Structure formats: structure tokens, C-alpha cells
Amino acid sequence: MAGKRKNRKSHAHVRSPSSGDIKISEAILRLAKPLMDRYGEDRKRLEAIITLAIIAWNNALLPVHAQRAFAMKSIETLSPRGGDAELTATVTYLLEQIEERRKKLFPHPRAFIVSFDVQESVGTYTLNVCSMPLSGMPEHAEKGESE
Length: 147
Description:
By secondary structure, the chain is an alpha+beta fold. The protein has one domain (5-143). It contains four helices and five strands; from the N terminus they run E-E-E-H-H-H-H-E-E. A three-stranded mixed sheet has the order 1-5-4, with helices on one face. Strands 2-3 form a two-stranded antiparallel sheet. Strand 4 (111-121) and strand 5 (124-133) form a beta hairpin. Helix 2 (43-59) runs antiparallel to helix 3.
């Protein structure tokens, strides 16, 4: 992709085992970076990759028993109705790749991403996210617990 990616100041932060506290928008961009570098040659693809990263992020906040259904519903939403199996398989594969990266980089997200916006200005993309902190949330799937 031709332009740089950056994100605006945000009050929402997340702890990364490797880099301490960072903004959630930065975390999403880090999750999506390998795919953006490879496939994000236009805004439509860039936004699709960011959407997959947000799905992986939000999915980790759900109880274990609800995660598969959420992922499948998200994949159905991203794939056209009656769409081809190859596209669905590709979206599923990319989501799995992002999820594995999320587990390594951000194993315990604590805020649900409600919405996002990608702004473009002179070849630079800015990611803005609106998030909602979750309190009293059950432990994550990585710990093997469910509700």
C-alpha cells in the first residue's frame, strides 16, 4: 500500500505483553499489519482487514461457548449471501490468522470495539475506534473458562 498508517489520540488503552500500554486503535493496526502489508492496496481491502481484526478482538471478549457462533455470524455477514465457498474459506482463514496473532500480542483485551472509522488524507490512513470498557467480565477463553 502506498500510504502510511497512523492513528489519532485516544483515551482507550490496552496492555501488550511486549510493549506495555498502547491505544486500542494501535493494537488493531498491529494485529492487521501483516495482512494490510500484503493485501491492503486499496481502502476497501484495508477496511475489510481492519474489520476482521476487530471481529477477532471482540470475539475474545465473549464467553467461550459464544465465540464460534459470533465468528461464524461475522463471516456470513462479510461474505455475500449465496456467495462462493472460496471467499468464505478465505475470510475464515484470514480471521483465524488474525486470531492467532491476537492471542500472542494481546491475550486479554478488556474493551469492546463498538465502531471504527478509517480516514484518508494525502495517502495516510487514520484509524479511529470507539470502544466500551467491560467490567466484571468473565475470564477469557485462553484460560479455558466458560460461563
